[in-house]
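Thread: "does anyone have the structure for this chain?"

Original post by V.I.:
We have the sequence but no experimental structure in hand. Need at least a predicted one for the grant figures.
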Amino acid sequence: MEGKLSLEKSKKIYEKWQYLTKNSKDLSLDSYYGLEFPGGEFFIDKNSNLLVNNSTGNKLSGENINRIIQAHPIYFMIITLRGSGASIQDIFDLLNYDTKNGPMLGQCNMTFNTQLKVDCKYFVKGQINSLIKKNSKKLGEIKILDFSLTLFDVDSKNIGNVNYVWILPLGKK
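Reply from O.Q.:
Generated one for you, tokens below.
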């Protein structure tokens, strides 16, 4: 699997997201199966890595940041979501989901194949694995969204994968 999408393919995927978002009320849940994310890229710079490390309690000074070539592991979650080409709100818009109903992150499973590096560009590709409707004893009618995002380096090496499962209560009708 190649990491970087061509500009033409990325544009087609984005256009499909736009079309589906505008017409989501009339679509079956199966319409989303295998839908690719628009994709994108993310660059980890030294200064941002310093801020992330400091915010997580791993205090680094400006003097030793130049010796650190590895990025904080939390970047894996940041990069995959920000570099996917679609925000969480974009996903909810795509599904015609009202966030007032209280979406919940049900699972987040990550697989790391290698450590992230500072001053490196990464590419993200992903897809929706499934969208199903169920009845929950506690929440009533819900949708369960499962999607995966994969992170690649500039050489198209798979850096890791993250799989998200969101629980989307549908509220009272």
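V.I.: this helps a lot. Residues 122 and 154 are 6 Å apart (CA to CA).
O.Q.: and The helical segments are 7-22, 46-55, 75-82, 88-94.
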